[in-house]
Amino acid sequence: MDAIARKALAAMCALSVFVPAIQTPAQAAVVEESSVVTVTADEVGPFFHNLELDKGRISSLKFTDPASVGGTQDSSFYIDFRFNGQRGLGNAENTTVDTRKEGKVQVVTMRNRDDALGAAWTREFRIDGNKITVRVEVENISAEDGYFQLDMTNQVNTARQLQGAYEDGVFTVGPEFGGYNAQLTFDGAYSSGVANSFNDTTQAGEVGFVDEAGAMFQRGRWIEEIDAGQTAVAEATITMETQDSAVDPDGDGLPDVWEEQGLTLADGTAMPLNEWGADPNRPDIFLQMNWMPSEFESRGCFDNPQQRACAEANTKSYRPSADVLQQLVDKFDEHGVNLHIDAGESYSNIPNYAERHGGEYGEFKRYYFQGVMPGLKLMDNIDELLGNRSAVFRSGMIGDSMGPGNYSVGLSLVGDNAFYVANHERMTTDEQLRNTIMHELGHTLGLDHNGSTKFANEVPKSDYLPNYYSVMNYLYQFSHFDYSDEEAVSGGPLPQECNRPGVNCYTGDYRVPADWDNLIINTGHIGRPVGAAGVDGKAVDAKALQAVEARAKQFAAAEAQNGTAEVALDAKKLQAGKKGEVTLRVKNPGADLDRYDIQVVTPNGAFHDAVVLGGAFGQADNEVTVKVPVVPGNAAVMPVDVKVTNGKGATAFEDRFAVDVETNAKAAPSDAMAGATNTGAAQAPRPEKQRETSQTLTTKVEQPAKPAAQDKQEPAEQKPAADSQGNAKAESPNIAAIVIPIIAILAIIGGIAGVVGSGMLG
């Protein structure tokens, strides 16, 4: 694609209007304008439509079969006439027009007369569904015999290579795959042919010439003598047929032969759509989801956590949850559409799909479109993320803000294959992310903020139509998880959403057809001829498939643990009144990395640490060892309260551990707090290469503030004793200071072990 074409296509971002391949003609009409006569079809089907019949030389012909992947074929039809070597010219001033209807056939007749030239000529266009007949009559109105030359030339306006053939007086012209065949006749022509250039189509006296280099131009040429007062006639026909390889009755842009036999790309890549759940009788949408990594990962903070930037680096995961994606799949299924998603190893609902392409991609960018044209960037995404697979898949990318100060949540190529979701700091819920994905995907399906682009000229150009209940409507983007399934009609009181700042609700009349009935799935790159129908029949690699499915189950299990933490505590040879340490092994069992705040409270002090841990799935940095300095009191068991909060401020772990202490007393240590031990966490296995340092951002030991009363039996506050360094031991305010004396008393009188149970910090 050349640079100009890329820029033009890139300009069709979210608010643009895309001219769809599937036409919905307005009411049938024939309108004479100054230089052309426009003819509009009266129904949807494999018909010629929206024709512009020129009073001069070049007419525009359009043909669409909505039950195919061929889209709209546009042709230019030339009529060039000479009498006695002089060009006959028709124009707005010397052309009279008559129109009539013969059953379903629309007839347009144009008449011209040039006395100086000595000729009168009539052009008649008969439009009959998928067939056009052009008849030209030339009358010699002079007193002398003369001759005429008439050329009728059809040019198919396409970048695709066209092939030509000639048999029994009929030319057949079309692409190799996935388009239309034009069948042309030039009855009684002196010469005729097809070629890739305008002037190479005809050789003197040769009928049925076919240029092997191509067939973009098709021409018939008539050369005859006309007696004075006589008339000569020339006639050409064009009949359009959909190629078998382009048949697509469900309108999803994927030819039936692909959905039934699969597709092999030009590079040999097999895409067995028939095994991936494609259905020729139900629309299929294939979507590949990718997302950027966190800033923390992109900056290499796991390897070098002491970088200054790592302290504030963004740890947000941009990955959509499996639940979000499944909700999208279910929503489309409710409306009769198969949505197939490849989100890498984290999620896919595509059966027999071993090689996944979705998932984390590229580097973190705070402003995704900074310094680039957004449309061109999305087109680059199609090339980089999909390549020729874009004939089947759409691309969805998730990242951070689009630009400085820009808190919009997404951008799309309307009616094409790519969109972007800005999952920035103001996007705080899965529901917001889910609805935004559906909104931006909707743009690639031909939906705008005021409904389907099929009706772009019939619906007010407003982003705020009060009764249009659709996720596409800015009024309801975050509150309505659905496209509209019924016509929206103006009227009634304005909803409260219209009272939001910056909202300007439309108050005029409107009717918006239902979104679900008017999706334009067959758009952009979908269905492009990028290979051959069929695959080699090689069976799916069962081992590879089992492996990827097993990893998906593991990922799902890890995803369910997002936001939690596992903590195991290890302490050896702690002695009363002497400095020691306890070791915490803190693990992130979730799928995504997270920032954790670790708080540890003992009778003698408090400890705080902040760490970032990678996800448990496929990352080596999901566990850290934290050493906590302690000075045990003279009690057989020291309580250690551990609380871990995640990056969202929610509690990830909270529990009390009981740690044995060698006391100065000769009595055997009591096991009265055995019931308080977190046995599950303590049994976590220690990895072979346990990390002795963490991605620690802040670490300090602090004296605890006086806690709230925990027990009515709390004695009067006691001043803590000093340790060997002269530091006060803030032991008595903590609940442990209450528990330990009680245990000691019970031990003296033969108390009962287990009186004190496990507790939780408030």
**Number of structurally distinct domains:** 3
**The CATH class of the largest domain:** Mainly Beta
- Helix count from the secondary structure assignment: 9
Q: How many E-type strands?
A: 40
Alpha carbon gap, first and last residue: 64 Å
CATH topology-level name of the largest domain: Beta-galactosidase, Chain A, domain 5
Overall shape:
elongated
- CA gyration radius, whole angstroms: 38 Å
Structural class: mainly beta
What share of the residues does DSSP label as strand, in percent? 25-35%
Helix fraction bin: 10-25%
Reported CATH architecture of the largest domain: Distorted Sandwich
Quote the average pLDDT.
Answer: 85
Give the low-confidence spans: 15-27, 667-762
